[in-house]
């Protein structure tokens, strides 16, 4: 097909996306700058409130801890699935993909049942006489972290399995027979060869945790709010639309920054790709 | 050898973490008691009957289905020609256009929902239903584009050229030569898009209105007020649906798609 007609058939899509996506976002940004003399006054107002600072830091902290937990949990599993458990590989992948396709409401609700006041964990601890009355786990930062780690763990396992499939078992065996320790094998062979999957997984888990809405709403409630639940509260309950717009721009900025930083890291680790 | 045991142990714990909560949900759905206690004392199907007795979940599910149908239709209408164009060109516009089409995945859902509400739905006085359909088409588009572009890249340009050099028009060549070759890609794209639309909360929650809601939003507001196993029962039904969808994805595209992002 000629170049002109190829351009022609892409134009409707570009126009629709610009009209429905780019323009509303640009207008949102314009909303946050009411006066030319002090363009960032709304941002200053927002960031000056201790309540908002707390939520901003909590959101970043929760996303960071979730990412670290997912890395620690995913590495051994992905290694085993990719290199040792070849026979059951597809079964392990199916079990990791399944929760990913299931509604986040279902996945967060499951944890409400487990860590709720009369939930599974409290029942167990009471029965074991470790505690005397039910403890508050639901509606805490900790609950949000568990819920997010549960939500996003498959997104760390799957890319890691994808890259580790290409590691030759012989390579690890020869390193060992030449005297490398287990740590040596991990840090000098497995980690460098799986770094691209690690970075992809980290971007997905970190940005996912940063912007997740359902899990912080159901497991964090009003006690452990994040930027996503704060923007909803401001927009739909308090009708503070200026504040909501400021939060929206801050969320986009953070997401962009995180992707940029991890992109730079990826380039440094793998200059060829 | 000792290493292997440690690996197997950690793998088992991780997979228990992945499956355990879902097993607990299944048990609680068949629990006769009002409370979500585990393990249940007596079993019954009453919570399943409850779903079908109450109008709200059924109508919310119908809304979800209709929304994902019209959303997918809109996304395909824009996405199919765009994907074809993207897979057959090397122009300098290719990368920016691709980023534009994939951006609804990158932009935080709550931001997208709020932006569409504030600057599309309200100023243009769009009906709740139409606003939702537009937003769902937008969040489905990245999956449609990505899967169809990769499906098209497996169709050699030469077979199309051959049809054209033998006298076929471009459109006819696309319909009888290219389209049959990307059928399963289109189906897989629609399945992924359907799951995205069916599960979406952050975008949708800004755009639902009086009388118009979707299944996940209805479930979300229900569990905040009533803590009983009704939602467990719905969850079990959704798990069934998800298993069917997963088999269809495996048949059309292969689940290895998820390990190669």
What does this structure look like?
The complex is a heterodimer of chains A (about 270) and B (about 260). With about 270 residues, chain A is mainly α. Chain A has a single domain, classed as MetI-like (MetI-like fold, Orthogonal Bundle). Helix content of chain A is about 80%, strand content about 0%. Chain B has about 260 residues and is mainly alpha-helical. Chain B starts with a helix and ends in a 9-residue tail after the last helix. Chains A and B meet through α1, α3, α4, α5 and α7 of A and α1, α3, α4, α5 and α6 of B.
List the helices and strands and how they pair.
The complex is a heterodimer of chains A (273) and B (261).
Chain A: H1 3-31, H2 41-48, H3 50-84, H4 89-101, H5 104-115, H6 120-127, H7 141-164, H8 169-177, H9 182-211, H10 214-220, H11 227-237, H12 241-269
Chain B: H1 2-29, H2 46-53, H3 55-87, H4 94-106, H5 109-121, H6 128-152, H7 157-165, H8 170-199, H9 215-225, H10 230-252
Helix pairs in contact in B: 1-10, 2-10, 3-6, 3-8, 3-9, 4-6, 6-8, 7-8, 8-10
């Amino acid at each position: 097909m000629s170049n002109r007609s190829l351009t022609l058939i892409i134009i409707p899509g570009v126009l629709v996306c610009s009209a429905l996506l780019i323009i509303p976002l640009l207008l949102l940004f314009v909303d946050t700058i009411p006066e030319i003399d002090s363009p960032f006054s709304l941002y200053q107002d927002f960031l000056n409130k201790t309540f908002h600072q707390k939520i901003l830091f909590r959101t970043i902290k929760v996303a960071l801890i979730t990412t670290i937990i997912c890395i620690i949990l995913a590495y051994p599993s992905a290694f085993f699935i990719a290199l040792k458990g070849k026979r059951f590989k597809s079964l392990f992948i199916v079990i990791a993909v399944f929760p990913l396709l299931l509604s986040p409401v279902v996945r967060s609700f499951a944890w409400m049942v487990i860590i709720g006041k009369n939930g599974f964990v409290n029942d167990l601890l009471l029965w074991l006489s470790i505690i005397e009355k039910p403890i508050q786990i639901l509606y805490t930062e900790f609950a949000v972290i568990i819920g997010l780690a549960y939500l996003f763990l498959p997104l760390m396992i799957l890319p890691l399995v994808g890259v580790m499939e290409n590691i030759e078992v012989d390579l690890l065996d020869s390193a060992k027979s030449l005297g490398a320790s287990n740590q040596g094998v991990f840090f000098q062979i497995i980690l460098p060869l799986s770094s691209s999957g690690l970075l992809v997984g980290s971007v997905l888990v970190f940005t996912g945790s940063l912007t997740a809405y359902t899990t912080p709403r159901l497991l964090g409630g009003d006690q452990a709010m994040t930027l996503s639940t704060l923007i909803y509260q401001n927009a739909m309950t308090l009708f503070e639309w200026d504040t909501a717009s400021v939060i929206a721009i801050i969320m986009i900025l953070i997401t962009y920054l995180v992707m940029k930083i991890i992109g730079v890291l990826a380039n440094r680790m793998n200059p060829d790709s | 050898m000792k290493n292997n045991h440690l690996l197997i142990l950690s793998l088992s714990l991780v997979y228990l973490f992945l499956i355990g909560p879902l097993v607990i949900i299944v048990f609680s759905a068949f629990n006769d008691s009002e409370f979500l206690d585990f393990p249940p004392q007596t079993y019954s199907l009453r919570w399943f009957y409850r779903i079908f007795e109450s109008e709200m979940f059924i109508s919310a599910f119908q809304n979800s289905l209709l929304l994902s149908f019209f959303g997918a239709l809109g996304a395909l209408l824009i996405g199919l020609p765009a994907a074809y164009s993207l897979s057959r060109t090397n122009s300098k516009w290719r990368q920016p256009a691709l980023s534009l089409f994939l951006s609804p995945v990158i932009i935080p859902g709550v931001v997208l929902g709020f932006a569409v509400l504030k600057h599309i739905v309200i100023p243009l006085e769009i009906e709740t239903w139409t606003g939702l359909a537009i937003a769902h088409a937008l969040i489905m588009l990245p999956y449609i584009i990505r899967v169809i572009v990769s499906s098209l890249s497996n169709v050699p340009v030469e077979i199309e050229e051959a049809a054209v050099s033998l006298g076929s028009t471009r459109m006819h060549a696309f319909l009888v030569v290219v389209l049959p070759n990307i059928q399963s890609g289109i189906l897989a794209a629609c399945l992924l898009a359907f799951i995205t639309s069916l599960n979406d909360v952050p975008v949708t929650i800004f755009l639902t209105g009086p009388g118009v809601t979707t299944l996940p939003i209805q479930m979300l507001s229900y569990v905040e007020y009533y803590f009983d196993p009704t939602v467990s029962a719905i969850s079990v039904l959704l798990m069934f649906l998800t298993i069917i969808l997963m088999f269809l994805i495996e048949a059309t595209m292969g689940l290895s798609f998820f390990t190669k992002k």
